[in-house]
Amino acid sequence: MISQEAAETLCVEFVSKYLKDATPCTAEDIANMLMKLVSVAGLTMYRVVGQQETMNRMIQTAAFCSRLPVPDEIVIEKRQKPRTKH
């Protein structure tokens, strides 16, 4: 098992690549993509440790997020949607 620090670094790199590759255009796009990631991770965790442990971990994560300061401004890099070929 890798260290917590290495796991976090790997996750940050993965999420950054995931968002870059999907080219979201709005904060709503990003939120939807991240929710899908949380959903898939939650379902995977459920299969490994069961419902109660998954719920405990998700609730702890939500509680942690609720204590974070609200940012003054959310900056989203403007991206153009990829052109489709006709």
How is this structure best described in words?
- This protein has 3 helices and no strands.
- With 86 residues, it is mainly α.
- The protein has a domain at 26-68.
How would the blueprint of this fold be written?
Elements: H1 4-22, H2 27-49, H3 51-66
Key descriptive features of the protein:
86 residues, 67% helix, 0% strand
Write a compact overview of the structure shown.
The protein is mainly α and 86 residues long. The protein has three helices and no strands. The mean pLDDT is 88.
Number of distinct beta strands: 0
Rg, rounded, reads: 16 Å
Provide the helix percentage: 55-70%
Q: Can you count the helices? A: 3
Quote the average pLDDT.
Answer: 88
Strand content: under 5%
How many strands, which pairing sense, and closed or not: the largest β-sheet? none
Uncertain ranges: none
Give the N-to-C terminal Cα separation. 47 Å
Tell me the overall shape.
globular
Specify the structural class.
Answer: mainly alpha
Could you give the order of the helices and strands? HHH
